[in-house]
Amino acid sequence: xxxxxxINNIRLPHKMLxxxxxxxxxxxxxxxxxIQSELDKxxxxxxxxxxxxxxxxxxxxxxLIAEHRGLAEVFLISTExxxxxxxxxxxxxxxxxxxxxxxxxxxxxxAFNADINTIEAKINNLSSQIQNRNITxxxxxxxxxxxxxxxxxxSTLIAKEYQLLFDSNPASASLYLASFQELPLVMDNLGKVRxxxxxxxxxxxxxxxxVVRLNIALIxxxxxxxxxxxxxxxxxxxxxxxxxxxxxxxxLASKIDEIKIFTEREIINKNAIELSGSNYFxxxxxxxxxxxxxxxxxxxQLKLIKxxxxxxxxxxxxxxxxxxxxxxxxxxxxGFLIVHHILKSTNKLLTATRKLSQGDFDIDVNSNNKDExxxxxxxxxxxCNKLEIAHQQ
Length: 393
Prior knowledge:
Blueprint: H1 2-8, H2 12-77, H3 84-103, H4 109-131, H5 137-161, H6 170-203, H7 208-238, H8 240-243, H9 246-268, H10 277-357, H11 372-392
Helix pairs in contact: 2-3, 2-5, 2-6, 2-10, 3-4, 4-5, 6-7, 6-10, 7-9, 9-10, 10-11
């Protein structure tokens, strides 16, 4: 009741003002929530865009360490092998670590820095042991794999912090899974095949352990390539620009099959080892480099998808704000005209009733409106005319 009394005591212009504010609020608040939601999407996409570069640099680091692993395998089984290639590769690895560290700006920087420092210390210590021949090829292989696992964990941390693990865009989500999860595992196992196969060819003999390790690596290549293939086919389906690289992709798939067949035929199944280890090493390295080059293009395309997605969302926000502004302007304009009409009519009626109360029957509200206020004005004018006639009599 108090609220009703308060409303009844408010003057009509103020009531109209309250109605207008409430009406605008009913439009403005949902509009604000929608725009805020779109802005949050833009911030997320921009964050994902920024995360592509450090993720790509983790792949570069993994590739370099895999190459270091292969060179170490060859170096440790041959007393004549020069360590200059290992030294150069270790230098490249340290530069790649610095490059990765510079590109990462995440909240979990303490955890990231701790992991990176551990990786750097481990690779430098391992490199020293290899050059001094204080470690066996099997132990070196194992230690390299531990470091690669650590880098993979860093990659997952970066993807999580930059929200690439929660991508709702089907094209970029498929491309991320293919390029940053499955292909690195394919390349890693190709690196294992390269190192083990070259070692066997250089020794001109193979042990059962070597054959088992080779077979496991080949099985892993099949498994991860199949997953990579599924994600890439999905990405091709959603992104027309990626379809242009379909022929390159098919060529790489054929080359992987060739390496697998060659390895099984000439190394695993053949009793007499006749091939050159260095030629095999270079052949697999060339394939890994081609895969890495293809992945570089995929990373560029992923950034382009994210940029286009952010631009599309920005356009939605801009045109939504424009539409909301136009609608509010129209609503305020129409509301002003209606309020002006109502207040003008009520002020005429108020003036007429005041004159009537003072005995002045010369009233002309002059309303041609057909709404309730127009009808009321005509009734008041008719009543005044009757009172004037009665007063004259």
